[in-house]
Amino acid sequence: MARKLDVPGVALITGAASGIGRATALSFVQGGCTKLALLDLNEAGLATTKELLEKAISSAGGTPEIGTYKCDVSSPESVASAYAGVKASFPRIDYAVHCAGIIVFAGASVDLSVDDFDRQNSINYRGLWLCSREAIKIMRTQALDSEAYPDNHISPVRAQRGAIVNISSGLAVYAQPNCPAYCGAKAGVLALTRCDALDYVADRIRVNAVLPGIVDSPMTNPNPEVRAWLEANPVQHSPMKRFGEPEEIADVAVFLASNKASLVTGASWSVDGGSLAGYT
User: Which domain of life is it from (predicted)?
Assistant: First the structure.
């Protein structure tokens, strides 16, 4: 379970309809957040996530304020519209975690179609960039959280205008056969994270990335055959020899977004059961 946040502010999560995105929203709630903006193209999944969050917040004695926004991250217009809706509904965005992503096992480069390459990059890299820059635009206009939430007694040294966590992948650093577009897009996310961390550090906006390993989520395991192959192959090559749970990724993302990680920016945190350690 996520530790309590110093500032239970407003959290925005893309890809919130399932998997790591839904788990991240729940982790923010466990940390004390009652105000959340949920973005995804899957409206039915968003409705389910919202219902789960409302139940969790209400059972803890809080009053949920949850907005859902249909968003196609591959479309600049859709992203701009969704973030404008969030800005109109909430006073600020304290935390933004960008989880939207897909993976297509479409073969090695010679066998990979241009359409499949473009689709993965339009969501996993370009789409994340579109979302991150909208979040930064909003965060730059905000007061420091120490000023916005004076009753929380945030140290001026640890104060921030906002924090962004981008979900990348261990495959940004080491490769797996037959997914060059996915590996390339996730490596791009790491480069983007480092650049944004440097460009907006003076604005007191922190930007970090999480590198999950093989996670037991709908994106990674779309059917029993794929799950069985993953369990028999890459999972067995990881030191812990097990799938990660979405909640294990979510809790790290929430920590990195929080003031408890106030000296961390431009970092890439592996949450992969030791896989990266085994490759280096």
Answer: Eukaryota
Q: Which one of 3.40.630.30, 3.40.50.720, 3.40.50.1980, 3.30.1240.10 gives the CATH number of domain 10-279?
A: 3.40.50.720
Active site residue 95: no
Q: Where are the domains of the chain?
A: 10-279
| Highest mean pLDDT, choosing among 1-10, 43-52, 166-175 | 43-52
Half-sphere exposure of residue 36: CA atoms within 13 angstroms, side-chain side: 34
User: Rounded to whole angstroms, how far apart are CA atoms 167 and 268?
Assistant: 10
pTM for the full predicted model: 0.94
* Active-site annotation holds for 87: no
The one catalytic residue in 69, 186, 200, 279 is 186
Point out the catalytic residue in the list 182, 241, 260, 279: 182
| Nearest alpha carbon to residue 268 among 205, 197, 180 | 197
92-121 pLDDT, tens per residue? Answer: 999 999 999 998 877 899 999 999 999 999
Output the CA–CA distances (angstroms, integers) from residue 14 to 88, 99, 146, 266, in the order listed. Answer: 17, 5, 26, 20
Q: Which helix (H) or strand (E) holds 268?
A: strand 268-271
Tens digits of residue pLDDT in 17-63: 999 999 999 999 999 999 999 999 999 999 999 999 999 999 999 99
Mean pLDDT along residues 173-190: 93
